[in-house]
């Protein structure tokens, strides 16, 4: 079962918040939402070591950084695996 959480962050903090969420390791999916529309969706593999996830997500994180430079604020929605905190 999954649980959804939403965070509203400023554009300059988007990339750092996404990296922090990925490092937590219990994330199934990260979505960046701007003005009610999903801009970027990053699916993450369950149980994958953080280093592997970081390498796989590097191109997407570059896209997140480019997106963050263009917006003043956005919402980050994450799907977390319940019971793994």
What does this entry look like structurally?
The protein has one domain (2-81). The longest helix is centred in the last third of the chain and has 21 residues, at 50-70. It starts with a strand and ends with a strand. It has helices at 14-24, 50-70, and strands spanning 2-10, 27-34, 37-43, 73-81. Helix 1 runs antiparallel to helix 2 (50-70). It has two helices and four strands, in the order E-H-E-E-H-E. The chain has a four-stranded antiparallel β-sheet with strand order 1-4-2-3, covered by helices on one side. The chain is of the alpha+beta class.
Helix percent band: 25-40%
The string of secondary-structure elements, in order, is EHEEHE
Question: First CA to last CA: what distance?
Answer: 13 Å
Sheet-strand content, in percent, reads 35-45%
Radius of gyration: 12 Å
Contiguous low-pLDDT stretches (5 residues minimum) are none
Mean of residue pLDDT values: 76
Q: How many strands, which pairing sense, and closed or not: the largest β-sheet?
A: 4 strands, antiparallel
Overall shape: globular
């Amino acid at each position: 079962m999954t649980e959804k959480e939403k965070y509203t962050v400023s554009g300059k903090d988007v990339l750092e918040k996404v990296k922090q969420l990925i490092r937590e390791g219990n994330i199934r999916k990260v979505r960046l939402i701007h003005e009610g529309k999903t801009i970027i969706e990053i699916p993450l593999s369950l149980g994958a070591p953080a280093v592997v996830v970081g390498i796989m997500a590097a191109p997407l994180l570059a896209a997140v950084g480019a997106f963050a430079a263009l917006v003043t604020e956005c919402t980050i929605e994450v799907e977390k695996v319940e019971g793994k905190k």
